[in-house]
Amino acid sequence: MNAPSIKAVIPAAGLGTRFLPATKAMPKEMLPVVDKPAIQYVVEEAVAAGIDDVLVIIGRNKNALANHFDRVTELEDTLHRKGDLSKLERVMHPSSLADVHFVRQGDPRGLGHAVLRARKHVGNETFAVLLGDDLIDARDPLLSRMIEVSQREAATVVALMEVDPSQIHLYGCADVETTDESDLVKIKALVEKPSAEEAPSNLAIIGRYVLKPEIFDVLERTEPGKGGEIQLTDALEVLADDEQIAGPVLGVVFGGRRYDTGDRLDYLKSSIQLALDRDDLGPELAAWIKELAPTLP
């Protein structure tokens, strides 16, 4: 299996209620992080890992997502006539990234159900799942490492990250054993959003997965879990418990830069951090922050 043959699935059917009223008419995945919508960062990450086929799972009122990855000939013509080639390149870039497809989730029955909707498109092949709330810094590649591990070990691979134990209840959590590689662990069990007292570790599942096609049959049999939804974590727990189904479940422990755009405060922090890292915005923004800081309470 070569990396380019892997397809990516991006679940994007959520209602984005934490960002209301901004998301009343705009998908949360289209909220700008600096000057690009969050979902473009995710597609660019998949492309950087060698993926050229992306399926986005959408819900109602998500047409803006499809429009973003389509051509806008009127705008392109206007920019071309003005000679504004820099903006023209930025406008055309999303439509040339990859083959981007869309399918409706229908009933909002959880992440596991959204992944299950990708079955016909993915077929009987290993595929990647990227959640749009987690942005991984392009300077700290994660997905390519996960694909390499999956190929080498014929394994399901989950991205993990150490978090403060007080925050583990916000995530799926992994019970693991070490391997000979410092960033690779074997997952023995998974727990969805445990309390700090019940958590087997402080290793949280972040929104990147490389899944084998056997996951679909497991998801078909998975009963609704927390929140009355079909949880992907529950299906992964079945795979971890029985390697005969699809081989081992491994975790790549990520130590790089991750930006959480699913929370309002973290979304603002992410935008500021990414802007600070840019040559065209960083110096002036940093100067303004330094000027502002002494006036803060």
Please provide a written account of the structure.
The chain has about 300 residues and is of the alpha/beta class. The strands form 3 sheets. A 9-stranded mixed sheet has the order 5-4-1-6-11-8-12-10-9. Strands 2-3 form a two-stranded antiparallel sheet. It has helices at about 40-50, 65-70, 75-80, 85-90, 110-115, 120, 145-155, 215-220, 230-240, 245, 265-275, 280-290, and strands at about 5-10, 30-35, 35, 55-60, 100-105, 125-130, 135, 155-160, 170-180, 185-190, 205-210, 250-255, 260. The protein has a single domain, classed as Spore Coat Polysaccharide Biosynthesis Protein SpsA, Chain A, CATH 3.90.550. Belongs to the UDPGP type 2 family. One of its GO terms (biological process) is UDP-alpha-D-glucose metabolic process.
Question: What can be said about this structure in brief?
Answer:
The chain has helices at residues 38-48, 63-68, 73-82, 85-92, 111-116, 119-122, 143-153, 214-221, 232-241, 243-246, 264-276, 282-292; strands at residues 7-12, 32-33, 36-37, 53-58, 99-104, 127-130, 134-136, 156-162, 172-178, 184-192, 203-211, 249-253, 258-260.
